[in-house]
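INFO batch 0412 | record 1 of 1 | parsing
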Amino acid sequence: MANEVDKELSEKYCPRFAKIAVDRGFITSEQAKKALSEQMDEDLANKPHRLIGRILLEKGWITTQQIETVLNELFKKQ
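INFO prediction complete | emitting tokens
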């Protein structure tokens, strides 16, 4: 159930999460593309859904503080 909620939230916010992270200079556009592609590939293979922030963090491309900054900006805009 939680995985379905993650997936629903992810479909709505991940592209914007990645764009904000790039705009802030936390990651490169290439890193964003790779993370989004990896997420989509895993979804198509019916693997457990992972959020973009988690993928970027696991690759060492973003810090937890940077994720928090992006999330604050993302949800502030609503």
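INFO post-check: Residues 2-76 form one domain.
INFO record closed
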